[in-house]
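Friendly challenge for the regulars: who can give me the structure tokens for this chain first? No prize, just bragging rights.
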Amino acid sequence: MNKILKALVALPAILFIVTGLRWLVAPAGVAPMFGLTLADGVGLSSQVGDMSAFFLTLGICMLVGLVTGRRVWFYPPIMLLLLTAVGRILAWLVHDAALALDLIGPEIIVSVILLVAARRLPESA
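First reply, four minutes later:
Bragging rights claimed.
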């Protein structure tokens, strides 16, 4: 069971890292996946910097948690993902944004997987 759980953590971690790297090297290809058009100037700098940092932090923390066996590393990605989902819902409720269920769903699913992993996987010293 733990091997399956580790795989369920590793797969999105790798996908997050790939997405973060894509933001660094080819942002025009990844921006449309998030409903974004690339800005220019400081806006482009913010998009590339913020989005790459977000996804790289998610993936790296998840992999560090798996490699070290320190479950505490799962909590930053859980917070980032759940706060992102809450932000998307608030944007829909307050700012007339589209309700992005296709983005919110995976954020919640990966958060639940990480919560289960943080409780079930053995802790290393």
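The mean pLDDT is 96. Residues 42-68 form the longest helix (27 residues). Your move, everyone else.
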